[in-house]
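seq/struct pair 1
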Amino acid sequence: MAGSKDVIERIQKDIRMFDGSIDTVESMLNSEQENSAQTNGTRIRRMRRILELARMYRSDSESFLDKGDTDTSFSCISYAHGLLDSLRELLKGDVFENREEGKELKKE
């Protein structure tokens, strides 16, 4: 991937998309922690660590982009998105399981 204007714009767009998505995932994680009577503290800590890793990959993406290394920048932001997607799916499953058990969840 060369440092063309199109590639740079695509990476910048992906970074903006990540910034919009991370707040949603963090909110889902906070709701899971607050609403689940069976929350496993270790499990929540691990999910928060994955969220922090996603933030770090996002930051790395921006740093590599500033240095003109678009290949590594794109890899980093793609990985960050993958981590968020994984967390989102895990948390959606938790919400579904809690509803199946008849527990009411707060809506924000």
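seq/struct pair 2
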Amino acid sequence: MCMKSKSKLNKPVDAMELVSVRRNWNSWEIAQVYVGDVSNPLWDLESGGVKESSPEALIFGYIWCDMIVSGSVAHSCLHGTAPHSIKICILRKDNSPRIYNYFLTLIGPKPALWQR
């Protein structure tokens, strides 16, 4: 790997960079939101909305439903006044290592109880 690529990986993540999110771990819908708009990241096994279980602990967080920059996630505002907070999933496969690792630094390693 060249030095230029390494320095790009070490560049601090800015709150205005985009992170790809899904509503459930296996949803086909993907949205992009600003990193700074994701609150309370955590390891969890259960999605928001329909409360679907994931096969392993994944990174989840919360966004306001009107903060999606592009794309979409499964969600309707039929059950309450908009906007409101919705739980989202951040997957390694949808994001660059730099963005995904940023969330890892916020929440720490996966709890041993949930290791595969």
